[in-house]
Amino acid sequence: MSKKVQVTTLSRGRLIHVGVVGAITSAMSRCVIVLDSFINSEADLFMSYRRWYRVVIKFLEILDFQKREKRKRKTKLKKKEEEKRKNRRKGDDDNKWGKEKEKRKKKEKTSL
Asked: pTM of the entire structure?
């Protein structure tokens, strides 16, 4: 007999019964997709706790890695933006002085 069971999907599409996942799922709820699906037997969903624990830990490690990478990218982008701003300022000043020097030279040539 099939009954409606709420399950969560973790990395690589593994299914775990919400009752087993319990509090950890609620802690990870931001990252875990919760589905309603018809499954013939609840036994299909259960994994040994040890194996389930490994899956969850791996999933959390992946999330942590992704967060770290995202943070690194953001800091790199910020540094690049700062460099661009500094270079732009330097470039503007140099261009101003360079243009003014050229104007002076032209004026001196024309005045002579």
From this structure: 0.34
